[in-house]
């Protein structure tokens, strides 16, 4: 019997729970590099049948009688040595192939120059400093701030230039010529607020010969509001001839929280207008802790007699004297208007059709007559007695004589008390 084989006699009580087939399946799943030692493997002769739960019931271990007892027949087992030379050889071949391929790639690629040395880590972009004034009252006095920045190096640098983005409304105070190493540079700036409201952004650029900060960009932000404001509360801000009107506004007085300023206690307006407060005064905290005093007022406007612009001035007084004044103006329109208020046609069009809308804002009216040198026909879509709006459709004919005049007119006669007649010019283009 060879060294790799041995006979083992198994009794019925020592029959293994796993068959050689199950054991071989488990061993087949073990990688080769784990099997570097002698691993016992059951060897099944072709003429033997093994007891295995996965096998048919007929595949039983053969039994024999020995000394009057029934015992299993002898089973041959053996051991198989799986050397690690296979794994080592595979790794060696793979590594050799990889080295050859790498060498071919290196030989095939053209030689590239060595990368340039790294540049200096000093910043080349402008250094940006921002200051926000917040919501500030535009009372005419300039806003001032001092930007400060430290020279990060131990060498001094020179100020080459200093400019503001809007020189008309802002500026930079005098700066030193040289900033020593490690010292702080103060940049005083100012922004004029007279006549300016709304969001503001002003930039101040400082140029130096320092490699660390060649450009210093100072940005100043502010939201300017008026110390006293008058906001209309009516959507319609136009007047009509012959109709009295009442306009409602809201007066707003703003002040800084730690500054005591007298709020308006009375309001006046020149005659024939009349004005009065119609709500109690109230205060609230606005943006950036500004104190806002608010009060509504109404202006009584007598019926205008003529079209055009109507203007007046409001004056607000407090306990210590005048607080503010505001100028107001309104456009006065006729109560009966034509839209469009002019017609433009081409001389080459021959016969054309146009329509004109008449709109009344106060009284009902009716159309008596429509005249014009170029009118061929006309009709009104609404009844003769009209409240609000009427549409007049016109048929116009152009000939050489009338077109040469270059200007014609359509006259619409009504029974409106204030606007008895409307004249719509007609421009004829060659």
From TrEMBL:
Residue numbers spanned by region Disordered: 1-23
Transmembrane listed as a keyword: yes
Superkingdom: Bacteria
Positions with biased composition (Polar residues): 8-22
Keywords: Membrane, Transmembrane, Transmembrane helix
Annotated TM spans: 87-109
Keyword check for Transmembrane: yes
Name of the featured protein: DUF1573 domain-containing protein
């Amino acid at each position: 019997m060879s060294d790799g084989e041995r006979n083992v006699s198994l009794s019925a009580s020592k029959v293994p729970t796993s068959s050689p087939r199950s054991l071989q399946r488990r061993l087949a799943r073990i990688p080769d590099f784990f099997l570097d030692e002698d691993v016992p493997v059951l060897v099944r002769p072709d003429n033997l049948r093994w007891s295995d739960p996965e096998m048919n019931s007929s595949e039983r271990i053969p039994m024999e009688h020995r000394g009057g007892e029934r015992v299993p027949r002898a089973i041959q087992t053996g051991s198989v040595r799986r050397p690690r030379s296979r794994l080592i050889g595979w790794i060696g071949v793979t590594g050799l192939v990889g080295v050859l391929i790498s060498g071919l790639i290196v030989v095939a690629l053209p030689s590239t120059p060595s990368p340039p040395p790294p540049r200096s880590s000093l910043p080349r972009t402008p250094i940006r400093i921002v200051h926000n004034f917040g919501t500030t009252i535009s009372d005419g006095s300039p806003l001032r701030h001092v930007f400060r920045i430290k020279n990060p190096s131990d060498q001094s640098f020179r100020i080459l230039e200093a400019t503001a983005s809007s020189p008309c409304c802002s500026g930079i105070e005098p700066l030193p010529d040289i900033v020593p190493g490690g010292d702080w540079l103060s940049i005083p700036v100012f922004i004029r607020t007279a006549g300016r409201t709304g969001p503001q952004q002003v930039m101040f650029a400082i140029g130096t010969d320092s490699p660390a900060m060649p450009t210093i960009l100072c940005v100043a932000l502010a939201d300017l509001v008026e110390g006293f404001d008058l906001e209309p509360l009516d959507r319609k801000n136009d007047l009509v001839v012959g109709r009295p009107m009442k306009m409602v506004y809201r007066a707003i007085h703003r002040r800084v929280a730690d500054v005591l300023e007298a709020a308006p206690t009375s309001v006046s307006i020149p005659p024939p207008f009349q004005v009065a407060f119609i709500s109690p005064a109230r205060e609230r905290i606005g943006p950036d802790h500004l104190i806002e005093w608010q009060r509504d007022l109404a202006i009584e406007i007598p019926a205008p007699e003529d079209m055009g612009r109507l203007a007046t001035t409001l004056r607000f007084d407090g306990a210590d004297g005048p607080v503010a004044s505001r100028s107001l103006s309104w456009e006065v329109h006729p109560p009966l208007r034509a839209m469009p208020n002019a017609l433009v046609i081409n001389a080459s069009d021959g016969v054309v059709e146009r329509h004109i809308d008449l709109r009344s804002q106060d009284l009902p009216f009716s159309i008596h007559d429509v005249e014009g040198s170029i009118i061929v026909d006309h009709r009104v879509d609404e009844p003769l007695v009209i409240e609000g709006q009427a549409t007049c459709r016109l048929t116009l004919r152009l000939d050489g004589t009338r077109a040469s005049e270059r200007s014609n007119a359509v006259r619409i006669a009504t029974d409106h008390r204030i606007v008895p007649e409307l004249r719509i010019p007609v421009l004829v283009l060659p």
